[in-house]
Amino acid sequence: MLSKIVISLAVFAGVFYLARLFYPFFASLSERWQKKRIERITPKLDRMFIDVPLNKLILLDVLAPLVCGGLGLLFFRSLWFAAAGGAIGLLIPLFAVKRMEAGRRQKFAGQLVDGLMILSSSLKAGLSLLQAFEALVEEMPAPIAQEFSLVIRQMQMGAPLEEALADLKKRMRLDELDLVVTAMLVARETGGDLTVTFSRVINTIQERNKLIGRVKALCIQAKLQGVIMSILPILFGFFVYKTNPAFFDVFLKDPLGRGLLIYAGVSEALGIFFIRKFSRVEA
Q1: Distances in whole angstroms, Cα of residue 143 to Cα of each of 41, 95, 238
Q2: How far is it, in rounded angstroms, from Cα 114 to Cα 180?
């Protein structure tokens, strides 16, 4: 009995010593890794004019994998699903920011025609291009007002128009905006009438949007079929696990079953990727 106590104390002391020895290394490694993740997210949030405190970003980055991993363990009672949930949780912040960027970019594209109409009307009224930008900022909502306010600020600080518009293109990465900026700069260099240029660009963008809308409408059926076919295997597996856990245990406890489960997950992910890839309409 005494020997067991001594062995237990020795093991505890050894583990405690190793934990204290390696804790600074792993803590430093974790801090550097988390810092890199935050540095990837923060500039994107700044470009979208979203001010999130650093401590909240870190909290979200820590909680997301813990919550998803806990849900995987709670529903499936398996460390494999807990690990998969934790991995998904790590991707959630990056995915959320990416979706927010895409939504903001799409909203900007939808406001671009109205913004060009305001610019054209302002120039016809005798205002300068900078004053036309200011009129656009006053009359239009975010995000186009936010982006052109940055353009105005850069020009007021001495940056040339070409540089300010080039930075705007880099931030938004829109084909429609590339067309607008190129037409605007060419018209200024050649002495063309910007109001006529804006009218032609507006017509071009409107016709382009109509064509893209028709193509997207034709792709809706393929996308819907892809979503249904992607969800069905997951729902069926969850149903089998809940109604007959013993049947599903083969996939969790047997090495061959786990391999098949991983193969099914990878195949499912590849199927979703290719369906989305083939049904995507490049604007």
Answers
A1: 19, 20, 41
A2: 13
Q: How far is CA 50 from CA 43, 61, 140, 143, in A?
A: 10, 17, 18, 11
- Grade residue 4 by pLDDT with cuts at 50, 70 and 90: low
For residue 283, give the nearest of 230, 231, 216 by alpha carbon.
216
Question: 49 in the Ramachandran plot: left (φ > 0), alpha (ψ -120 to 50) or beta?
Answer: left
| pLDDT 10s digits, 135-168 | 999 999 989 999 999 999 999 998 898 999 999 9
- Alpha-helical regions (H) of 142-193: 144-156, 161-172, 175-190
Residue pointed to by tokens 């353009």: 151
The position carrying tokens 């690990």 is: 83
User: Measuring CA to CA, which residue among 183, 156, 37 is closest to residue 97?
Assistant: 37
Crossing angle of helices 194-243 and 175-190, in 10° steps, is 170
Q: Is the dihedral of CA 25, 81, 275, 64 positive or negative?
A: negative
Please check whether residue 166 is in contact with residue 145, taking contact to mean a CB–CB distance below 8 angstroms.
Answer: no
| Phi, psi (degrees; rounded to nearest 5) at 279 | -100, 5
Q: How far is CA 61 from CA 51, 52, 159, 253, in A?
A: 16, 13, 37, 31
User: How many beta carbons lie within 10 A of that of residue 75, not counting itself?
Assistant: 14
CATH of domain 105-210: 1.20.81
pLDDT of residue 85: 80
Please give the distance of CA 91 from its chain centroid, rounded to a whole number.
Answer: 10
Quick check: bond before 141 cis, omega within 30? no
Distances (CA, A) of 228 to 215, 221, 223: 21, 11, 9
For the chain, domain boundaries: 2-100, 105-210, 212-278
CA distance 164 to 232: 49
Q: Are 97 and 41 in contact (CB under 8 A)?
A: yes
